[in-house]
Amino acid sequence: xxxxxxxxxxxxxxxxxxxxxxxxxxxxxxxxxxxxxxxxxxxxxxxxxxxxxxxxxxxxxxxxxxxxxxxxxxxxxxxxxxxxxxxxxxxxxxxxxxxxxxxxxxxxxxxxxxxxxxxxxxxxxxxxxxxxxxxxxxxxxxxxxxx
Length: 147
Hints:
Layout: E1 2-18, E2 32-44, H1 51-69, E3 73-78, H2 89-105, E4 109-112, E5 117-125, E6 132-136
Parallel strand pairs: 2-3, 3-4
Antiparallel strand pairs: 1-2, 1-5, 1-6
């Protein structure tokens, strides 16, 4: 599981087309949304990702929020562009849903952008330390070996 956590003043998106990649992708809805004063998490589910990685991502959001952001809202944005080892959409979607549920359990008001669509988007990202943070799980601190 990979992602980018953004501390945003505003995030807005509008779906433009049904995605054609990866194979098997399907839209859950088609529309638009706007969120203010929120953490936006660009979220990518990779082959073999497990629920424990979702839990690690939740803890990372909580830690960054407590230390820097201090926000009450989180928006989960499915974002396949972070990997070339994507999980099949039918396996990825339940992990993204669980990610949202766990964030709610942590006390956040949680929103999400649509799954399976191409989007135009506007990110108004704050300019403080840790306003942008990358994560990947599992993470062992070692560089990835090329095969």
